[in-house]
């Protein structure tokens, strides 16, 4: 589904160039659950941002279902992201002023879906993730685990082809972290393609494939 | 989607309620003031727009003496212009009072307008009953306004009623008119025809070239060019120059719809508006609106920085830049709508008071016309977009990753923008403070200028039939002087503060080349000079014997006594009061000094202001026993704090000597204040606008400062742990504002200097520039910044250091 060919990304700050990704090659198939690990500064987050079209690449090619994404204009990239990519963050990134229901509904609104269809989809997701009873609550009223479930539901709501998760358990204690990992594995079993960046070896073990990174290089892949 | 935007906007408003309310208050105050001023301005420009055709009023200006410009010209002018075919239509209006004998009652109809039948071609007059045409069919026909009809006949049917005037002429009421609207320069209580004027006083006034007592309006087929105006002026001046070759004068055409704002000639029908005030109001409205808008933009941008994360989340959820832009513009529109609604309600409540203050009737209903509503809606859209554009643009252009990190609007350009807006607001406020300070000082000085007479403890009773007063003055004076509270009693055709005058020609008998064409002559009653405490420089004042002498001898050509003021003495070539005393003058109604009478100078008084202190003092001749105007006014000098008692004494005495209605009694000092109410009003309103501007800017500063504190809470906590004192923290937080306020002060001082010197130059007497104000205004702004920053630190004190260091706020 996704192929990265010799993708490089560097940042220049005050005359110092940092090579965040160094000619990375990577293939992701539909239904994969991949965990990316590595020490701080190894390029994990940059890889995720590149895949999520949040950062442009310096060289190489990014193919998504046969389409070369780095050739697209920023506007087209935004449209592509809207349809195909979902995000989950370490700090959940829910909008404080919107309820659980409204947060999950947000991507559907921007996709221009009908109100009825939106409601149907959000109800279904809340049911599936066990947060239906929290529908009208505001994010501040939820526990960390519940907030992450809402974030996951929001990532799923637009029916993206891939979910990119950046340290989804980083802000959760271990038991709740485990719960979230089980949920992601379950979603993967139901067909979702997931790429997750994590520091935790234990949580990385929930994935089907493990990618280790160091200094912008892709060290090894374990299945 | 729109519903979602609306919901988000409302929730955001709620979540930052304190800041949003501060911001809302600032914008609402700005909009309310602008809306109220706009209502007033719209009314000011609507004067005399309702009439059937465009017309012009003919004014005469005498250049020979002191450029005095009169609102009325002689009765012969209009027919002459028609005869020369320089105009297509003309209308003359002469106003004078009419004594009404109705059964046993005697009333006075003030300001009856004697007009040509062309009145309806010029002005819109609404008739309730009867017809206006009947006024012109037969002399002695009169149309009354509804209130005059009630005054004369009470609730009884007034139409077709008859009454007699003082000379026994029979008058018939042939029409009842609506009251004149507020938006006209016209003022009268009844309409009669010129033929009726001839019926009561003959043709003398109408056939004159020299008696300027007809408001004369003219119409043209197309608007007159400069050459047409000159031709009219020259044509009208010629017959006058044939009579007096050395006369220098010109005629002006003033568009009727411009009279309200531009008419400031002697003898205007009513107290007109002022162009200076109009432009002052325009400036105030613009300044307050802009300061409020800048404030809103600055505040909204500061508040928006907290929404960076939300923007990031929306972007990864699929929002495009356009959608984000729309969302934030809609929020601005909604916010402006709230502020506008508050402003509309506040205006509805405050407009009557504001109107009362400006002596106009102002209501919110004046805003509810389709044109006005369309204008307001356009204004609303412009304000919403102007106010919301910058925050919306900045937010929608945030890079996703920095937005998700909550980096927000901490970029350099954003800060520059905010600082620039704050800078502009501060410049305006500081400059206004300095300027308003000077306005206050100047007004205070003007109030203390010696006017040449005493106005305190003086009561005046106005519009008293002069003929009656000539007969009964001695009796009335005797009656009143019986009371110990009344120090002295006098009267005059024109008392100080009254804008009416008669002009005559005066020359020295022994040196006839030294003359005063068109000098103001005032007929006074005995004790006038002492009653008003006008300094007598030489000789004596006019007494009751002088009055009798002149009354009996004037027609027979006998010499009569006069008193001159110093300006007249100097204009006639004498260098001191003593030199002039005992000299003789030729005195005539005619510019060629035909039928001249001999006058003896028996006294010289110091100059005094005849009306407001804006009108220069003029040469003046005081006579007695020679009533020149139909009305006169009585003046009483009473003991301290005895005004009310003296008023009732006057009422009792009046009833004993007269069967006429009791005249209205006023304080001379309040009439003087009324003359300067525009100065007073302009000063007060500018001060009010400044107070509002300073208040709005303070709100803005308060918001920005507390927001900046909120954002820097953890930094402040770290500094505190490392040993920074509270004073250091205040200085740290205010540093960003202090630079702006200092720079703004420098610019404001230059602007204020220019503004103040320019404004002061329009006065003949000026206060010097006050350097204390130039220093204090910027210092207060700096103090305000420090104070507000200190207050904003209360946010910091709310939390414990450990909470702040964990960044859990």
From TrEMBL, chain A:
GO terms for molecular function: ATP binding; ATP hydrolysis activity; transmembrane transporter activity. Residues 2-223 form the ABC transporter domain. One of its GO terms (cellular component) is transmembrane transporter complex. Keywords: ATP-binding, Nucleotide-binding, Transport. The keyword ATP-binding applies. It holds the Pfam family ABC_tran. Belongs to the ABC transporter superfamily. Macrolide exporter (TC 3.A.1.122) family. This is ABC transporter ATP-binding protein. It comes from Rheinheimera lutimaris. The lineage of its organism: Bacteria, Pseudomonadati, Pseudomonadota, Gammaproteobacteria, Chromatiales.
From TrEMBL, chain B:
It is found in: Cell membrane. GO terms for cellular component: plasma membrane. GO terms for molecular function: transmembrane transporter activity. Keywords: Cell membrane, Membrane, Transmembrane, Transmembrane helix. It holds the Pfam family FtsX. Residues 283-398, 689-799 form the ABC3 transporter permease C-terminal domain. It is a multi-pass membrane protein. Residues 21-197 form the MacB-like periplasmic core domain. Its main location: membrane. The chain crosses the membrane at residues 20-41, 278-297, 333-355, 362-383, 389-408, 420-441, 685-708, 729-755, 771-796. InterPro entries: ABC3_permease_C (IPR003838), MacB_PCD (IPR025857), Macrolide_Exporter_MacB (IPR050250). PANTHER family: ABC TRANSPORTER PERMEASE YTRF (PTHR30572:SF4), MEMBRANE COMPONENT OF TRANSPORTER-RELATED (PTHR30572). Belongs to the ABC-4 integral membrane protein family. This is FtsX-like permease family protein.
